[in-house]
């Protein structure tokens, strides 16, 4: 039996005795089980696997314990994965990430009762909670340079697309921009990897590679090794709000249904008339050969949300330098707007996010079937409902609870207006055809059925 004790790092090294006692009180809770799984995912950092069962199966005898010390709390690992060690020494980045999980899930999870109804419910309370978690993670420190670029894109992309994400990251890094992604592999890793080279060339020694995850996705997408700041939000909605309030601009690479969910989330927010004056750099980009993907996305947005939604982003194909130059120029507009509004440079308080984009959507067969998928609603509401539909498919593809539901009751059913559902089906089929639903070499069995009966 292998045992390893870890000293606390970062903010967790400065806990009071009362705070340590509260952490220990949580060791037999449902929250602690979630903490254990997230730590196991972190210990598998860099492993190319998007099946939580395959990832966790070899480590049934893995345990994690909290050991109280006068000066704080230690973590003890029992039978941890060998992949996290180099010559019997835990990789330093993994060590840091484990205490980030402790900070976000146990400390902040206790504070906000993540698994209970006492968690924030009002929109302003949710935004305050997002801010508080980022402040505790010290993610707001150094974020006032208006140079944090969020990169969205799929974990299942081909080598040409992956190399392109690295080149874009490199060009952003040369211009002293920091990278924030969903922290996993593929299009989440490439921009960070490229930016490290750009930062090194510019002798930019404080490069930030921020990974934002949430408990049910981190098991399917363990943090990549480049992430130097890991933050785990309690659910997908708060993760998405973190992206748009912490980041100053967004670049979207080719991806699958999860990327479409992110795209619809941001479009729904930007189409709110209260955000009409808000400059928000939003670029879709990929290498030559990815035109089919962006044509499918653009056609879907145009057919469902209209030309106004299409005007919120620009598409740049096979030109990393142009992506970085355009982003740099547009970030200057963001800086001027924040200054004129008196808004913080480190956190976008002035962006209006409606509660429908903040309240957690729990995908079940009942909630998926009940989604309002028709044109007889505002564009923002339609974007919110489409976002939920795609979020449910992500759950059915890679999240433990979603996969369990599909195994027990069959695929989720999406029902709505015939013309709209045909467009949804066409887009999803394009993702399947382009192998964007699961990692290459994995046969994809759809977790959804699209109906046209209403």
TrEMBL record:
Pfam families: DUF4478, Lysine_decarbox, PpnN_C. It catalyses: AMP + H2O = D-ribose 5-phosphate + adenine. Its EC number is 3.2.2.4. One of its GO terms (cellular component) is cytosol. Residues 4-112 form the Pyrimidine/purine nucleotide 5'-monophosphate nucleosidase N-terminal domain. It is an enzyme of class 3 (hydrolase). One of its GO terms (molecular function) is AMP nucleosidase activity. InterPro entries: LOG_fam (IPR031100), LOG_family_nucleotidases (IPR052341), PpnN (IPR049788), PpnN-like_sf (IPR037153), PpnN_C (IPR021826), PpnN_N (IPR027820). Residues 332-450 form the Pyrimidine/purine nucleotide 5'-monophosphate nucleosidase C-terminal domain. PANTHER family: CYTOKININ RIBOSIDE 5'-MONOPHOSPHATE PHOSPHORIBOHYDROLASE, PYRIMIDINE_PURINE NUCLEOTIDE 5'-MONOPHOSPHATE NUCLEOSIDASE. This is AMP nucleosidase. It comes from Alteromonas mediterranea (strain DSM 17117 / CIP 110805 / LMG 28347 / Deep ecotype).
């Amino acid at each position: 039996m292998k045992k390893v004790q870890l000293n606390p790092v970062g903010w967790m090294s400065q806990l009071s005795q009362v705070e340590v006692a509260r952490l220990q009180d949580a060791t037999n809770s449902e929250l602690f089980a979630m903490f254990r799984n997230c730590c196991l995912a972190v210990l598998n950092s860099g492993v190319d696997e998007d099946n939580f069962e395959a990832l966790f199966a070899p480590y049934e005898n893995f345990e994690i314990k909290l050991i109280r010390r006068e000066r704080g709390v230690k973590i003890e690992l029992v039978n941890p994965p060998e992949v996290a060690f180099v010559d019997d020494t835990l990789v330093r980045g993994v060590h840091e990430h484990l205490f980030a999980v402790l900070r976000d899930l146990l400390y902040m999870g206790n504070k906000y009762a993540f698994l209970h109804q006492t968690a924030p419910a009002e929109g302003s309370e949710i935004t305050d909670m997002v801010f508080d978690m980022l402040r505790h993670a010290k993610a707001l420190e150094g974020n006032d340079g208006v140079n944090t670029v969020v990169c969205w894109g799929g974990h299942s992309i081909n080598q040409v697309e992956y190399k392109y994400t690295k080149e874009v990251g490199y060009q952003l890094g040369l211009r002293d921009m920091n990278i924030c992604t969903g922290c996993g592999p593929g299009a989440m890793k490439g921009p960070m990897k490229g930016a490290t080279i750009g930062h090194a060339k510019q002798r930019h020694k404080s490069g930030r590679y921020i990974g934002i995850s949430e408990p049910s996705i981190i098991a399917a997408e363990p943090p990549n090794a480049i992430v130097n700041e890991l933050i785990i939000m309690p659910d997908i909605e708060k993760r998405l709000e973190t992206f748009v309030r912490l980041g100053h601009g967004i670049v979207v690479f080719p991806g699958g249904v999860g990327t479409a969910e992110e795209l619809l989330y941001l479009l729904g927010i930007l189409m709110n008339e209260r955000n009409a004056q808000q400059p928000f750099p939003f670029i879709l980009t990929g290498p030559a050969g990815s035109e089919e993907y962006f044509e499918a996305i653009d056609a879907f947005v145009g057919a469902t949300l209209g030309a106004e939604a299409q005007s919120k982003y620009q598409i740049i194909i096979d030109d990393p330098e142009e992506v970085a130059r355009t982003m740099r120029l547009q970030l200057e507009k963001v800086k001027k707007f924040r200054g004129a509004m008196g808004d913080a440079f480190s956190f976008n308080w002035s962006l209006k996010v409606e509660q429908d984009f903040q309240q957690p959507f729990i995908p079940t067969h009942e909630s998926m079937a009940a989604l309002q998928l028709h044109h007889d609603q505002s564009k923002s509401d339609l974007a919110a409902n489409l976002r939920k539909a795609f979020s449910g498919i992500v759950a059915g593809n890679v999240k433990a609870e979603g996969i369990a539901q599909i195994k027990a009751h069959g695929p989720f059913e999406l029902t709505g207006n015939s013309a709209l559902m045909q467009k949804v089906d066409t887009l999803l089929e394009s993702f399947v055809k382009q192998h964007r639903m699961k990692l290459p070499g994995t046969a994809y069995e759809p977790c959804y059925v699209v109906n046209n009966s209403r």
